[in-house]
Amino acid sequence: MSCDVITTLYKAPWGKTVRWVSALSTGVLLWGGASLAGEPARGHWDVKGSINTQAPTESLRVLGTDLMRSQAFKRITLASLLMGFSGYGIGIWTSAFLVRSHGMTLQGAGMVMGLMGGLAAAFGAVASGWLSDRLVKRDARWRLGVPALGCLLSIPSGLAFYAMPMGEQWQLGPMLIPHAVGFYMCFGFTAVWWAAPVYATLAELVAPHRRSSGVAIFNLGVTMFGGGIGPLAIGMFSDALTPTYGNEALRYALGATTGVCFLLGALCFIWALKPYAAERQVPHALPTA
């Protein structure tokens, strides 16, 4: 049943149009941003004297070994893997949840996920960056405190969204929007608070000459674990709950995943505070082989 819903979403008559519009709008935004933003000199934001202009050539094995020696990097990565696991799973299955548990049409579920959820996430990402930059002036540990706070704030709104039964709806033109979507907007706003501060933190911890490779390794892990395992695990969990909860099994699978992953993610970000504060005292203090 889970696979049938996803297949229907991809084969919907409007699916190709939505994909083309999304791709074109993304391209226009990227082109506009690249045109308006100037390229800063390399190392402009780094501490003076910390830039190695004669960077040695090193293998990915050496870089990976050094990254794993950093307690801050490991704990931040663990938290981010949990966020990727839940984020990819939620992104794949929430449309199916809205169709099954709230009686929305595929078009309506796509509108909620793509437009309303996307706007909430966009504003949340900007807000997290602004809040992090403000708070780190008081204490640098807020660079990871903001992601932890975002995880904790996301738990009640996420659980409320997945737990709220079918009920009253708002009329938006020809489309009916369940009241539960209000909680989804709040959840989407805070659920992304981890991303921007985490990448800023990685830029502090990893030296400029290894930063691209270091972030690429980080992204590879989050994408493979989150995108590769998250949706599959939630789908299997939902199927396992189906004999007990029937058509509402996906509701419980998404709710449980949200609560567990965001709570553990918050704890991992808090766990990383102490080593991050210690390692950032020396510019790019990741151990070297």
Describe this structure in words.
The protein has helices at residues 2-11, 15-36, 60-69, 71-102, 106-135, 142-163, 180-190, 195-205, 211-245, 249-271, 273-279, and strands at 169-172, 175-178. The chain has 289 residues and is mostly helical. Strands 1-2 form a two-stranded antiparallel sheet. α5 (106-135) runs parallel beside α7. The longest helix is centred in the last third of the chain and has 35 residues, at 211-245. Mean pLDDT is 82; it is low at 1-7.
CATH architecture: Up-down Bundle
How many domains comprise the coordinates? 1
CATH superfamily: MFS general substrate transporter like domains
| CATH topology grouping | Growth Hormone, Chain: A
Essential attributes:
289 residues, mainly alpha, Growth Hormone, Chain: A, two-stranded antiparallel ribbon, 2 strands, 74% helix, globular, disordered N terminus
What secondary-structure arrangement, pairings included, does this model have?
Layout: H1 2-11, H2 15-36, H3 60-69, H4 71-102, H5 106-135, H6 142-163, E1 169-172, E2 175-178, H7 180-190, H8 195-205, H9 211-245, H10 249-271, H11 273-279
Antiparallel strand pairs: 1-2
Helix pairs in contact: 4-5, 4-8, 4-9, 4-10, 5-6, 5-7, 6-7, 6-8, 6-10, 9-10
Give a summary of the structure in a few sentences.
The chain has 289 residues and is an all-alpha fold. The protein has 11 helices and 2 strands, in the order ααααααββααααα.
